[in-house]
Amino acid sequence: MFDRAEIAVQAAVDAGAAYADARAMILKTEQIEVQDEKLDALDVDERIGVGVRALIGSSWGFASTGDLSDAGLAECGREAAAVATASAIVAGPALEFADVPVVQTSWETPYEEDPFAVSTSEKIDMLVDITKTMKAVKGVSIAFGSVSGWDTNKWFVSSQGHRIHQHIVETGGHYSATAVGEHETQVRSFPQSWGQFETGGYEVIRKWDFPTHAQRIAEEAVALLTAPELEERETNLVLESSQLALQIHESVGHAIELDRILGWEAAFAGTSHLQLDKLGVHRYGSDLMNITADATIPGALGTFGYDDEGAPARRVDIVKDGIWVGTLSGRDSAAVAGLEGGSGGMVRGDGYNRIPMVRMTNVGLLPGEGTLDEIIADTDDGVYMSTNRSWSIDDKRLNFQFGCEIGWEIKNGKLGRMVKNPTYTGITPQFWGRMDRLAGESEWVHWGIPNCGKGQPVQVAHTGHSASPARFAATRVGVKG
After folding, report:
1. Which of 107, 155, 230, 301 is most buried, by CB atoms within 10 Å?
2. Binning pLDDT at 50, 70 and 90, where does residue 92 land?
3. Other CB atoms closer than 10 Å to residue 435's CB: what's the count?
4. Could you state, in order of their start, the residue ranges of all structural domains in the chain?
5. pTM of the entire structure?
6. How far, in Å, CA of 60 to CA of 355, rounded?
């Protein structure tokens, strides 16, 4: 496969590219879905192909092919160079390109149990049993569960001499119970609304002990039908860690993508409220806010050995003691922005047929001290919200509203009555500035989001977001009656 990719790279260089690289990939996926004790979907897919980038002057060109013949690969390389040549008609300064070590190496996800070696019947039986347990709870109308696996082999070759093979294994799943009342529908999910996905094998599913929580999830869905609404007010907001993970994703992760900050990218998830001249001085949040982008965390979904430009995975400080200090960058954006340390190693493409772009790795909030129970005990009045249900944020990642599946009032340091349809709203730096309690490492979870969208045509990335529960003072919650 290295030799296949080399043919495409050489053809691009021969056609005038100052730099070219190629990714040859074999991608295998499996998706199993069960609804109401019946198999609803069993999708297994395997794809193979090569994608080529070519740099000419100020412009990138990209092409891909599933034809791995010598002629097909050479034509793909020439096409990438032709696209770059056409793009360079709109003149601009020659694109700078940060150096990265030129290596010939390999990297593999550590895993214990190949998810594709576990029998299909075992996975289906587990989901059937879970949905059976949930459906047995009076009031549950729909019980759904799924398990997914990805096995990706990629061979990266560049005109600078890189030859990197990676084998990335990812596994995850989720389930949910839907209760339908006379005028509304309520849903409860596990491990959270989009599931939990990690780099690793089927041990990920076993670790989360999926069957154990099915009864509770179903009972909570039904209980929500008769729970009161959360009234609108300003109070202390305590978020469990998966909801905080999505908050990080939307109000931090997309905003710190350097291509958005530079104005290169605005599709799908908008632009950014951040400006480079404020790097190192802009206050993003309270002193408790320490965000890193770390592609080296074992088991996290945004973990790999090298990105799709051959840059090694590494940890980058993003927010330190509340101050914005770093971005998500690639070789070109880091050079243009003059970032110290060069590329952040954060460029990835969705399969072989999409041009790589800046993507989140594991953008997470470092833990604080204490536990969720201690935070609640220290809260006289507030609300505790869990598990995302909806979100809305403007194209600068600034003004937002989030809704959760379930909440509980906090009174005098104890959880009180359950509330349904809980929501909260805020403005990014003000919201993060109100974080005054943050739980410690014992409750720090590396949540994985497998469906982050960006670009046109849209690309889907797997990202990780570490978080522990946190409290935010004087936050607007609930909706007007």
Report:
1. 301
2. confident
3. 23
4. 2-224, 233-477
5. 0.97
6. 9
- What pairs with residue 36 in β-bridges? none
Topology of 2-224 in CATH?
PmbA/TldD fold (3.30.2290)
pLDDT for residue 69 is more than 80: yes
Buried b (16+ CB within 10 A) or exposed e, 366-381: bbbebebeebbebbee
What does the pLDDT average to over 284-307?
98
Type of residue numbered 369: E
Quote the CA–CA distance of 243 and 362 in Å, as a whole number: 16
372 vs 281: CA distance, rounded Å? 31
Residue position matching structure tokens 């596994």: 171
The three-point CA angle 80-86-87 to 5° equals: 90
Which residues fall within 8 angstroms of residue 119, CB to CB, at 6 or more apart? none
pLDDT confidence tier of residue 95, bands split at 50, 70 and 90: confident
Pairing of strands 470-477, 435-438: antiparallel
